[in-house]
Amino acid sequence: MYDYSGLEKGMRLQAESDGAYYAAEVVQVSRARNRVQAPVKVSYTGYEGYDEWVGGDRLRSKALKVKAPETRAEEEKPEKPKEKLQLNYWPLFGKNVAAQLALEFGGFDWEMGPAPGDKGTGNLWEEWLEMKPDTTWGFLPNLKAGNKLVGSELSILQFLARRRRSLAGGTEGDWLVSQELLHQAEELYQKYSEKVPTIMAKDKDKAAFEAFMEGGDKTSHSNAQGLQVYLGQFEEFFSKQGREDAKFTRLGQTIGELKLFATLEMIVKVKAGVLEGYPNLLAFTQRLRETPQVKGVLEGTAKNMKGPGTQYFIAPP
Q1: Is-cis flag, bond preceding 317, omega within 30?
Q2: Is 74 strand, coil or helix?
Q3: What pLDDT score does 50 carry?
Q4: How many Cα atoms occupy the beta-carbon half-sphere of 9 within 13 Å?
């Protein structure tokens, strides 16, 4: 049992979040019955907008005292099982990658769920048609979290960032950078998927593919922007952040950064060396590739992955 009487508003201490302790300040100490388990409201230093109510088990302060319970008449309740998240996707390297990376960096208990091909019939499409009615929007990925089913890549990433401050961006500035990267990387992905052949659509126009891959006219309408324009924009956006550690944000693992990394990896798989003229993007991707979380996803050794996903985007013949 914890004695909170020594804690006062404005007092500095340490508070735990996502398994790590951060500098924090006491905002309020409540005596309300509904706050018995978490009576202390704290504000994390340098992280605006993330105030939360916590209990003594998540606080470190000399002013916090621990005392023995007065009675043990009531048996302790069994610990609630930890929620396991389940990600469903095709056995491909595609829109599952950013979500897998976020699950890894966020330290979630997760696994890959059933996918087309798992039944071993040899007909992935028929197996998918059996799964399709149980998805949210009729496509994958989907993320199962208890009784919740999150049904699109961007929603999944935002859902995970809601649960992990490190994925969202601890400050307003980092959150904004992450959001810009998240949505601009999605725009690039949509343009890329329109112009680049896939293993399911191999006959896309070769001339249109080459024009997109080499397109660098900054004056063109956004609908006609080529890959080089997008890469140049990301390179310039990185420079504007004023960082020199191959990170767009302080921690370098927000959902926007992970989405951008996954998108760039899909491009590099089709055209190796495409980032050579963009030193910031090159350093950014190289840094992440060296992390154990990214290695596990790229090599297909994370959780119950059955190996690396099959390359989805391909160069025209």
Answers
A1: no
A2: coil
A3: 81
A4: 4
Which among 276, 84, 43, 273 has a CA at the least distance from the CA of 171?
A: 43
Tokens 């049992």 correspond to 1
pLDDT above 80 (res 77): no
pLDDT band at 223 (very low <50, low <70, confident <90, very high): confident
Residues 47 and 170: beta-carbon distance below 8 Å: yes
At residue 3, what are phi and psi to the nearest 5 degrees? -105, 110
Structure tokens at 211: 């024009």
- Complete domains list, the chain, with CATH: 2-66 (2.30.30.140), 85-161 (3.40.30.10), 171-299 (1.20.1050.10)
DSSP 18-47: TTEEEEEEEEEE---GGGSSS-EEEEETT-
d(CA 143, CA 157): 10
What length does the chain have?
317
Q: Which residues contact 295 (CB under 8 A, 6 or more apart)?
A: 289, 301
